[in-house]
Structure formats: C-alpha cells, structure tokens
Design brief:
Layout (H helix, E strand, L loop, with lengths): L1 H7 L4 H4 L8 E10 L12 H15 L5 E4 L5 H9 L6 H4 L5 E4 L5 E5 L5 E7 L4 H16 L6 E2 L3 E2 L11 E8 L1 H5 L3 H10 L3 E4 L11 E5 L1
Antiparallel strand pairs: 1-5, 1-8, 2-3, 3-4, 4-5, 6-7, 8-10, 9-10
C-alpha cells in the first residue's frame, strides 16, 4: 500500500494534460449519484446492512476499475490525499466505515460506495467536454441499473442524501480559477449570472463558498 502512494503522489493525468486551451477552466466533472430503492441512506443504515450493501455494490464495480480500496483499510492521511484530489467526500475522511473507493490508474474515472449516497461515479477531465465524460460513465450506470433498483420520486427524481442533489441523478461541474474576477471585485456579479442561468457556484473542495477564493466550482 505504501509503495502505491509513494509512486502516485503526482499531478493526476486529467489535471496535468496540457491539451486544455483555457486559462480559466481547470477541469470538468460528471458525477452520477444513485441510491438503492426502499433502503435508508448509508449513514442511517445498521452496520451489518451497510457492510452487505458495500460489498455487493463494490463487487459489481470491480470489473470497471483497476484499484479497489476499502476505506477503513486506508490510513487517514491517505483518505485526505484522495479528498484533495476530488475523489472522496470530506465526511468519509473521519467516518470511513464500510465505504469503498474504486478508481482507474490515472484517476480519471472513480466510484465511491457507501459514501454520502450508496454509489457515486465520477469522471474528471481537464476540459468541459461533457459529452465525452458522460460517454465514459453512462454505460456503467446503465449496467448497474439492470441489476439494482434505484430510489426515485415522481416529483423529485433520483433521490440523494443531500436534497440539493435530487433530480436528474447527474451533476455537471466546471472547475475554474477566477483570480481576475475576484481581484476586480466582480465575484457577486458572476454569482448573480450563474444563479440567473440556474447554476450553482461553490468552493472547489466543499459546499461552502469563501468569496475571497479564486478557485470555484460552477455546477448544474
């Protein structure tokens, strides 16, 4: 395990790829979120049920990924490492019980099982070519959907432990560096534009937003 991390502490391929032509957009993300029907969200599950669901879902996902890490077998500094690389939700750093992280070798495609939701599948890219990112994830979600029933609501769509994430079951994000906007004190204007177009804007590493930060996530 230690050899893996010593070799992998480097810029992820999706971020270091020099094909991007934008000085503002650092990268893009497609995030699919699903929960099992008639089943409490992971943090509300009894331990035995949560463990069983974690094993069932991660076993199905192993065919798509090169690496599989049960989170409770990772050191806390390793969980921080993956959070900093946008692969792990922050709460799982402290509460990794029965969670699983699966990822490919270049960290472009990853999945979290038993996180804040039963399953989330993420595709990262140094551009905002959402069509390509969707192509890289829809097949996995589609095949899982043939084996598992997802929690949905006629009014709210796909359900999530975070009410803000209910709906289409997929979130598209652009990671942006807006230093010029912040220096010019135009951040509030940018936020108003995003809101007018039905978009959210938040801190790159979390849900809150520090208006002095020039690293932001603009998302659907």
């Amino acid at each position: 395990m230690q050899d893996y991390f010593e070799n992998e502490i480097s810029c992820p391929k999706w971020l270091c790829d020099d094909t991007s032509v934008s000085d503002v957009v650092l990268g893009g993300e497609v995030l699919f979120i699903r929960n099992l029907s008639d089943t409490p969200f992971p943090l509300a599950l009894p331990e035995d049920k949560r463990e069983q669901i974690g094993e069932n879902l991660s076993d199905e996902l192993e065919n798509y990924f090169e690496n599989h890490f049960p989170l409770n077998k990772l050191q806390i500094q390793d969980r921080y490492y993956y959070w900093e690389r946008f692969l792990l939700p922050y709460p799982l750093i402290v509460h990794p019980e029965y969670g699983h992280l699966l990822l490919d070798s270049d960290e472009t495609l990853s999945a979290v099982v038993n996180g804040l939701d039963h399953i989330s599948i993420r595709y990262l890219m140094n551009d905002i070519d959402f069509d390509s990112m969707l192509d890289g994830t829809e097949d996995i979600i589609g095949q899982l959907g043939e084996k598992f029933d997802w929690a949905t609501h006629s009014q709210f769509g796909y359900l999530s432990s975070n009410p803000a994430n209910c709906g289409a079951g997929v979130i598209l994000s652009a990671f942006c560096h807006i230093a010029g906007t912040v220096i010019a004190n135009k951040f509030d204007h940018l936020r108003d534009i995003a809101k007018a177009h039905g978009l959210g804007i938040g801190n790159l590493w979390g849900q809150g937003l520090d208006t002095g930060s020039s690293f932001v996530r603009i998302y659907t």
